Amino acid sequence: MTFSLAGRDPETGDIGFAVATSSVCVGARVGALAEGVVVLSQARTDPRLHQVGLRAWEQSASAETTLAAMQDAATALHWRQLGVLPAQGTPLHHTGASCLGACGGVTGDHALAIGNFLGSDAVLPAMIAGFEAAKGHLSERLMAGMLAGEAAGSERDPLQSASVMVLGAEALKDVDLRIDDSTDPLADLNRLLAGWLPKAPAYRLRALDPDSAPLSSTIEHPDRA
């Protein structure tokens, strides 16, 4: 009972995903990433499958091998919905026969949308179209896709939580944000993202070159500097 959008930016090399669902704390259960890949496990979610996928990717750098490893490790695969988006190449997905409809997956040039218990068959294509039409940071494009999916039918139950994560250069997460319990989680997440993105470069600098980085009070309260 979830819809997710994984995407990549071929110009920057950034890779990431966003997810929303009708239960709490989806960011704790759905999705993981590492350099070069996003893996998704949802429907009747087993978060352990993310680590299976990341290990398979580290050993093979193959989306096919990664998805196969997750499928092989899954208990009751017919309840699982899985996705793999590599930094290069074709995204792959699996939707088990017991996943609640509308369900499935749709791929774009640089994105993968998967979902189940959706309000309409239009949700997944709308997510890809919204992502591909959007501009800005990868996280903003992911959110545009998620909001387009929500507008096209969303999930059949009211959304309650959402998350967005983007891995940038030097294996640093430039975005890692969650809304765990809300009556309008995608809108709340979009507002949180808008507040975070102007601060993200300064926090990246604190990781890479702390001697040159500003004080956190300066980052958070530039009007007082």
SSE layout and pairing:
Blueprint: E1 2-8, E2 15-21, E3 32-34, E4 37-43, H1 48-60, H2 63-73, E5 80-86, E6 92-95, E7 104-107, E8 111-115, H3 123-133, H4 138-151, E9 161-167, E10 173-179, H5 185-196, H6 200-208, H7 216-220
Helix pairs in contact: 1-2, 3-4, 4-5
Commentary on this structure:
This is DUF1028 domain-containing protein. The protein is α+β, with helices and mostly antiparallel strands. The protein contains 7 helices and 10 strands. α1 runs antiparallel to α2 (63-73) and α3 (123-133) packs antiparallel against α4. The mean pLDDT is 97.
Brief summary:
The protein is 33% helix and 26% strand. It has helices at 48-60, 63-73, 123-133, 138-151, 185-196, 200-208, 216-220, and strands spanning 2-8, 15-21, 32-34, 37-43, 80-86, 92-95, 104-107, 111-115, 161-167, 173-179.
Could you list some keywords that capture this structure?
Ntn_hydrolases_N; 4-stranded antiparallel β-sheet; alpha+beta; 225 residues; Glutamine Phosphoribosylpyrophosphate, subunit 1, domain 1; DUF1028; 6-stranded antiparallel β-sheet; 26% strand; globular
